[in-house]
Design a protein that fits this description.
Layout lengths: L2 E3 L6 E3 L8 E3 L6 E5 L1 H30 L2 H6 L20 H9 L3 E3 L11 H10 L1 H16 L4 E5 L5 H16 L3 E7 L4 E6 L3 H22 L8 E10 L5 E10 L5 E6 L7 H11 L6 E5 L4 H10 L3 E3 L4 H8 L1
Parallel strand pairs: 11-12, 12-13
Antiparallel strand pairs: 1-2, 1-4, 3-4, 5-9, 6-8, 7-8, 9-10, 10-11
Helix pairs in contact: 4-5, 4-7
Length: 329
């Protein structure tokens, strides 16, 4: 039976009347809550549980190495932790060091840990989109346009594509449907048309309207995480509040051990009118040119190099982001 959990009060309830992926008022506080299929809901819980388990084991291993005692080393082999936030030290959170860095600058950092939670499908879909952006750009454009116009369906005509590209797109669309990014998917083989029904969930709409690029940038950062010794802190959608109450949002931020933060602003559309804003923001944060990055899907490598030479910011595209990160991390 379909089920929902209220993000406001934590109330969990079954709901047989509301269609899956639609919203229903919470039975306790009335907050709109998304209804999920029971199997999907349980699968997501298992994934989150596995993610917490991995993080907890990693923390135990670090503690064992630091103390170099047999007792601590034995504790690091615990098979399955309790899902109790109070039972894990707060220092285990991936954003803790970032918060401390901002506090030292007298800047309030408002970080939602769920914005960088990779136990769902956002990171996987974003990685595929970014790695094959040339192939999937038309799909993204059509979905964004449909959302802006309040359309409910998108039709992709694939007859003019090569067989290889057509198969890759239909496979990706089917995968997105299975991961609930689309509410319906149907491929008409004779006409070579993929018919997609858009998902109404706000998180999915935000993903297609630009959030995917933030997830892609975050995954490029995390791909380099293991190559850095020491602690590594990261977050997505960080709201920073300065002493004069100015509020800004940073798309992706990471803090390698012993280094200054790296800020990545992600742009899947026009950004030129915002260059001056980012110049001022980088100065207020004290983040140098190489570490304040504008990642745009629309820039060629030559354009990115030219803009980098003109301004005290670093400009990259999808192909050069990883190379730039490798250089500075």
């Amino acid at each position: 039976m379909p089920i929902y959990r209220c993000n406001q009060c934590g109330f969990v309830s079954e709901d047989a009347q509301t269609p899956v992926q639609s919203q229903t008022p919470c039975g306790r506080c009335g907050t709109p809550s998304t209804v999920y299929g029971t199997v999907f809901f349980v699968e997501e819980l298992i994934k989150r549980l596995a993610s917490v388990t991995r993080d907890y084991k990693a923390l135990q291993a670090q503690q064992a190495a630091a103390t170099a005692t047999t007792a601590t080393a034995a504790a690091a082999t615990t098979a399955f932790p309790k899902l109790d936030a109070a039972s894990a030290p707060s220092s285990s959170a991936p954003h803790t060091a970032l918060e401390q860095w901002f506090n030292q600058k007298n800047i309030e950092a408002r970080i939602d840990p769920s914005a960088a939670d990779t136990s769902g499908f956002f990171d996987e879909a974003a990685t595929q989109l970014g790695n094959d952006y040339g192939l999937f750009a038309d799909l993204l454009d059509r979905v964004r346009y449909a959302y802006r116009k309040s359309y409910t369906n998108v039709n992709l005509e694939l007859g003019n594509l090569s067989q290889k590209d057509g198969q890759a797109i239909t496979k990706f669309c089917r995968t997105l449907y299975e991961q609930t990014f689309f509410s319906r998917y149907h491929y008409q083989k004779p006409e070579k048309i993929a018919r997609l029904s858009l998902q109404t969930a706000p998180a999915v709409r935000q993903f297609f309207e630009g959030g995917w690029l933030e997830w892609y940038a975050l995954m490029q950062v995390l791909a380099l995480k293991d190559g850095n010794s020491g602690a590594f802190s990261y977050a997505r959608n960080v709201k920073v509040v300065f002493a004069n109450e100015d509020l800004h949002e940073l798309d992706v931020v990471c803090l390698p051990a012993g280094q200054a933060p790296i800020c990545i602003e992600c742009k899947s559309g026009e950004f030129r009118r915002e260059i001056d804003k980012y110049l001022r923001l980088s100065k207020r944060l004290g983040v140098g040119k190489e570490r304040f990055i504008i990642c745009s899907t629309d820039l060629t490598e030559e354009q990115a190099q030219g803009l980098t030479a003109m301004y005290e910011l670093s400009f990259v595209n999808l192909q050069t982001l990883k190379k730039h990160l490798q250089k500075i991390m």
